[in-house]
Structures are given as C-alpha cells and as structure tokens.
UniProtKB/TrEMBL annotation:
Region (Disordered): 1-35
Protein name: Amine oxidase domain-containing protein
Residue ranges annotated for the Amine oxidase domain, each copy included: 309-402
Alphabetic keyword roster: Oxidoreductase
Oxidoreductase in keyword set: yes
Pfam families on file: Amino_oxidase, Pyr_redox_3
Length: 527
C-alpha cells in the first residue's frame, strides 16, 4: 500500500537551514471580540448539526436510586469523546469523573511539553461526524482560515483550548477534583459497580464520595494500562534528584544545574528543551541506540482498515502485527529535535547504557553519579527519565478487585504466554470491553464486560490504542456501538413488553376531514 501524507515536506537536508523554524509560535489570534463571537456562533452551529443528525427521542431507561448508566473515569480527550459518543447514541445517565481541575484538560497543559501535536491535523476524530465540532472549524473561527492553511501541526495549547470548547459545546457532565481510588464489583446479580473517589480542590477540603454505575469506561491516559516506567537505577535515586517526564517538574529550580535526560524519544527531547529554556546549565541526553529513530509507524496506521477493523483480524494476525510493531521505536518529532539542538548546552550521547546510578552524599558538588556500561562516569544534579510507560494491570489500584478475572492475551492466546510484555495486555472485546477469563465464575463473566479499557493496554487487541488521535474515531465508534448493543439486549424483554402495550393512534378519525374538529388537514398537493 502506498501512503501519501498531505503534511509531508522535503527532507531536512534539502531545505535551507535559515528557513527552518526553531520554535513554532502560536498564530496571532483575531481580535478577542471577533474570535469569541466566531466561537460562540460555531458552538451554536455545532449544536444545530447535532440536532439535525441526532436521534429524536430518549430510549435508555434510567437506573434506580441515582445510579448512572455509564461512569467515565478521566476527562481528557478520550473521556470527553466517550461521553459525546454515548450522547450520539442518545444514552443518558452518563457522568465523567476527573481528578484535575476544570481549567486543565488531560495531559496537554501539564507534562506534554512539546510545542505542537505530532498527529496530522486533518484526521477524523472526536467531532464524530459533526463538521462544526472539528478542530479545523474551531481553529478557523479563532485565527481565520489562512492560519489553518498555514499551520502544519496543531499547537499543543490550541488543542487544549479546543478541548475546553468541545467539552462545553457537547455538554459533558464532569465532576472535577474527583480522584477515583477504587472500584467495587456488584454485590448482587446484574447489580451496579460502586466507585469510591476523593473529592475536593485542596487537601483540607477532600471528602470520600461514592458513585454507582452499570458500566464504567476507564479513560485514564497513558498510565491507564499500568504506570509510568522508571528503570530500577533511576527508581533507586531519591525523589528530589529524579523525575519521570509525566511528573510535575520545577524547572525553575534546575536553573544552572546539569541534567541528564535518559531516553531519546519525543518526551526526552521536549523535557531537555523545557529545562534549557528555563535556564538549566547543561542537558546531556543518554540514548541506548546508535541512532535516533526516524520512521513513525503510526503514520502508516492512519487509514480506516487499520483504525476501525484491526480488531476483526484473527488473533494470529493481531499478535504477529503487535510483535512487529512493538519492536519499532517511536521517533521524536523533527521540531522537537531542532528545538533541543537550538540550545548550545544540549548534548546527545548515543550508544550510552547505564550500568548504575548512585546518590552521592559526600558533599560533592553533584549528587548523582552515573556509570555507563563502557565505564564512563557522568555526574549530574538531576535526572529526568524519559522512559515511557508500562502495561501491567496489576499496577492499577482501581482494577485490583477485578484483576483475577480479567482475561489477558497471555491467558487466551497460547503464543502470548511466553513472557513477552505484550502478553500482559488485556484480551479486549470488539468494543474495548474487558473479557472474563474462561474459568471465571458466572457473576464475573456477567459484569467484567461491563468494564471498558480505553487506554494503552488496548493496543494488542485494537492496534491504535483508541484514546490516541490516530485511532480515536474508530475507538469511540466501536465502544459506543457496543454499549448501545448491550443496553438493547439487556432491556429487550422490557422493551418488547412496552411494544406490546404500545398505544399510539396515528389515525384519529375515519371519514371526511371535519374542519375545527380534527387536526388541520394540510392542503399541499403531495399530501
Ligand atoms: C510529549 C507528548 C506528545 C504527545 N503527542 C501526541 C499527539 O500528537 N497525538 C496524540 O494523539 N497523542 C499524543 N500524545 C499522547 C497523549 O498523551 C494521549 O494520546 C492523550 O493524552 C490520550 O488522551 P486521554 O484522554 O486518554 O489521556 P489524558 O489526556 O492523559 O487524560 C486522562 C485524564 O484522566 C484523569 N485521571 C487519571 N486517573 C484518574 C483517576 N484515578 N480518577 C479520576 N481521573 C483520573 C487525568 O487527570 C487526566 O485528565 C503525546 C504525549 C506526550 C507526553
């Protein structure tokens, strides 16, 4: 298959260096009044389109005692998109719980420290076929159509602001400052899950609250399949001299310091740049490979067959693909590389593997001493570990009660039982639902598929994890269809009884129309 990308440009070597932007500034907005008026009008237009294309009446019964039909944990792009996808199916009783404040959405103004998204700007996504909800329309309303045409990759903070507008326009019902600590299984057949959360903006205000729901979507972001990954040598260092890229890092406190960034992916480059731009004295990046990878396999995957139908392949095909794709490293973006190299105190060391790292308490100027496998000793003030994430459901506290019953690839597909890390991915169903292990008791067989994993562990079953923009349209479509299907099946007996008792007369009078007695009779010729 040939893949062509609208955003592609010539190779870096062909471009005159002076014309390369070293940082991508946010486009100049239209005047505040003009862009706000345009965004208000766009929101109204989007709501009109939702009405035109929407189902015309509710159909899902309310749950008893204030329980929700669906509880979504996490209000990033995945959780908000899930809430909207359910709304498109006219499924009410949906609540989203979000640990963070209303002002911050997902990772985008926290640990995502790049200037732009890496995803192409022109993909189908969380607008779910409502044109006026698409990022392009939002961007054009805010900056003008010329700015969209001139923008290659979407500025990160614009994506954040778009998500805030999307959240408001789609009317997602979110409880903020609500961190879910545990989820409990139903205590009676076909019953509700109970969710425990700590709610409150500050420590002193926090209270424990509970929610009950028939189904739960876990949309926790990159940690959702397990956790951040810290190599043991980094983990052994005390907290005040090390961080993972997902942590809140006080870059101002690193002014003048020597920092070692471990890992040469996108986050490694972004954090190196963020540190140097905040005044760090020097950043040395340590990369195990001999070269920084250049190919991005995600770009190949962005076509409907892959995004929406990978799940429909056989287990053998899915596993073969996952093994191959799992061995392909993700490169940094071109802009991230240029941004770091624009700083004279940035140095990258390839072929550099750590043998050990120790915290030195002998009063030396630099408290971290790293020894590489080839015997080099590097002293540093601080280590930022750009080492990604691990998929291991046993690390998720909210899944603890369900873990023994959740089917993993290693349980269900013999070749995945050889200890390969991908075997730890959950063996998900067509709509991202967890599935119960073959030996699970009948209660668990019933309720486990009412839990949905919309996060990193989905990749073995669905290839693009669903929550990432490369696969989010297909993921949301599949998950919401599956939930609508389940609701129909489980309510069918009551629905059929309702049909049998259905009493709606469309024809009120048999005979000639009686003006003033019957409803008006339209005189149009085609009536
Ligand atoms: C440097 C960098 C560049 C990236 N570039 C791209 C890109 O270009 N395109 C792309 O698609 N992806 C990109 N990503 C990946 C990106 O992080 C994910 O695709 C995206 O965040 C997924 O959205 P999400 O809603 O699943 O997760 P998030 O945006 O992380 O949102 C998850 C939400 O869940 C909340 N939450 C977590 N635990 C709980 C809990 N227990 N209780 C309540 N709430 C909870 C969090 O507070 C958070 O708001 C990038 C990531 C990084 C770090």
């Amino acid at each position: 298959m040939t893949t062509s990308l609208d955003n592609s440009s010539g190779s870096a070597a062909e471009e005159p260096a002076a014309e390369q932007p070293l940082s991508i500034a946010r486009p100049e907005p239209r005047s505040a009044e003009e862009s706000q008026a345009a965004l208000r009008e766009l929101a109204q237009q989007a709501r009109r389109e939702m009405d035109v294309l929407g189902h015309n009446h509710d159909w899902v019964p309310e749950q008893p005692d204030g329980a929700y039909n669906v509880l979504i944990i996490g209000a990033g792009q995945a959780g908000l998109g899930a809430a909207f996808a359910l709304q498109r199916h006219r499924i009410g009783g949906v609540k989203v719980l979000e640990a963070g404040p209303e002002s911050s959405i997902g990772c985008w103004d926290r640990y995502a420290r790049m200037h732009t998204l890496r995803s192409p700007k022109n993909m189908k996504g969380i607008e779910l076929d409502i044109p006026s909800l698409h990022t392009q329309r939002w961007f054009e309303a805010k900056y003008g159509p010329e700015a969209w045409a001139a923008t290659n990759l979407l500025p990160r903070l614009d994506w954040h602001d778009y998500l805030a507008w999307y959240r408001e326009t789609t009317g997602a019902d979110v409880d903020f400052h609500t961190w879910v600590s545990a989820v409990h299984a139903p205590t009676e057949p076909e019953g509700m899950f109970t969710v425990t959360a700590e709610q409150g903006a500050t420590e002193g205000q926090k209270t424990t609250v509970t929610y009950r729901a028939r189904r739960i979507i876990f949309a926790l972001g990159l940690i959702g399949g397990g956790s951040t990954f810290l190599p043991p040598a980094v983990k052994a260092l005390p907290d005040h001299v090390r961080a993972h890229t997902e942590d809140a890092i006080d870059f101002a406190a690193l002014k003048g310091k020597k920092i070692v960034v471990l890992g040469g992916g996108a986050s490694g480059f972004d954090n190196a740049s963020a540190a140097l731009e905040a005044g760090a004295g020097e950043v040395e990046m340590h990369v195990r490979r001999s070269e920084i990878p250049r190919q991005n396999s995600l770009r190949w995957m962005e076509f409907p067959g892959m995004q929406e139908h990978f799940y429909d392949l056989s287990d053998e095909q899915k596993w073969e693909f996952s093994l191959f794709n799992g061995g392909l490293p993700q490169p940094p973006t071109q802009a991230a590389v240029w941004r770091a190299y624009a700083q004279p105190n940035f140095h990258m060391k390839t072929d550099t593997r750590w043998a050990s790292a120790e915290y030195v308490e002998d009063g030396s100027a630099k408290p971290v001493r790293i020894t590489t496998q080839d015997g080099r000793v590097v002293e540093a003030d601080y280590v930022i570990s750009a080492t990604g994430y691990t998929v291991d459901l046993s690390l998720r506290p909210e899944l603890a009660e369900f873990l023994p019953d959740i089917a993993l690839w290693s349980d269900e597909f013999a070749p995945a039982a050889d200890g390969h890390p991908l075997g730890k991915c959950p063996y998900l169903g067509e709509g991202f639902q967890f599935q119960a292990k073959s030996g699970a008791d009948p209660e668990a067989q019933e309720y486990i598929p009412r839990l949905f994993h919309f996060s990193t562990g989905a990749r073995a079953s669905h290839a693009v994890a669903g929550n990432q923009l490369s696969g989010i349209y297909g993921g949301l479509t599949r998950m919401s269809r599956r939930i609508a299907k389940d609701i129909t099946r489980e309510n069918w007996p009551a629905m059929f009884e309702e049909f049998k008792a259905f009493d709606y007369e469309e024809v009120g009078s048999i005979g000639e129309h009686r003006p003033g007695v019957d409803v008006p009779y339209p005189q149009g010729p085609r009536y």
